[in-house]
Structures are given as structure tokens and as C-alpha cells.
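Translate sequence into C-alpha cells.
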Amino acid sequence: MAKAGTDHVIQDEGKLREIYAEPSHGAVAKELARLDPHCKRFIELSPFFCLGSSRADGLGDVSPRGGEPGFVHVLDETTLAIPDRPGNNRLDSLTNLLHNPAVGLLFFLPGVNEMLRINGVAKLSVEPALMKRFEMNGKPPRSVMLVEVKEAYLHCAKAVARSGLWKAETQIERSSFPTAGEIFRDQMKLDVPAKAVDEALDENTRTELY
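Result follows.
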């Protein structure tokens, strides 16, 4: 039996356009080749974005990035600087950039349904002045990602509006989903109580936030 959905797979853009209409003039015209004042202000206020990259084998990856509002610095109209704070040291995104520098960034503003999309190419730097620029509590980042902006545009509100992302009433009861400690205990078959794993995760977050 064929796997569900494999009998009618769309394999070329012509077939795709038979299903979807052409984009409106506004959907295309809104794309910018540089950051205007509105884009800059969005980034200055944003505490969170998602970073899309791809591995050497072509498999895609998305990683969250967060910090204080404006933790991503706009160096000029086509350059962003992003500090890399302590993490799990898998280095998925950073390794990906060494093979394929193309990246996509999706910035969020809490309470605002529109998002800011930026596509460009990235490189990693440990230039001393950049590292000093992003010191937090006397600690520099591990490295700084420099993104050369190629495309920037405001993404419409439909996805966030449909999801009710910022509405308090859409938040689930925390007890309805396992804690990270419970999940890791089960997935890694750990012979320790889930509470101990959660406490270790909380301590790691507290001590290595910056």
C-alpha cells in the first residue's frame, strides 16, 4: 500500500500554478533589497526570531533565537549582527552556514500579528570589537553571525491570527503536556526521575543564559 499522499504529488512549478493563483502586486512589490526604517524598528523591538538554514546534505533546519528586545543589531541597511549565546553545543545552524551560507530569518514581536521575513547570506565572526559589542554580564558571545540582507518584507498576519498565538486563552494547561525532563527521560531511556532531569535543565538555563 502506498504511503498516504504519495499518489498525487506536485513535482513542478507549472502544476503548482494550476492550483494557486498568481501573487497579488502588493505581495511581490513589498519585498525590499535592504532594511528600511520600519524593518529596523521591528528588529530593534524583537526579542525572538527563527533561523532557517540547510545542511550539507540538503536537509533543512530551523532554530529559535531569543534575547532581550533588540539583541540583534542592525549595523547598516544590509547587515545584521547576531550574538551566539551559550547553548547545547550541537552547532547545527553554525555548521550548516559553513556549507551553505544562505539563511532565512523570521522575526516576531509579542502582541503583533505581522512578522518580518529576511533572507540573506551569513558568515561567522569572532572579531574582537564585535565580540565586545555583545558582552552580557561581562561575558562575550561565543561568536557573532553577520547576515548580509538580500530580501526583507513584512509577512501578513494570517498565520498568527489563525493560531491565536498571542491570546492568553489559547495557552494550554501546562499539565496537559509532559515536561522536558519527562520527555528526555523517556526518549533517552534515562534511569533517573523526571524531576531530577527538569531540575538539572532549570539549573543549566539559569547559569548559562548568557
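Note: The chain has a mean pLDDT of 94.
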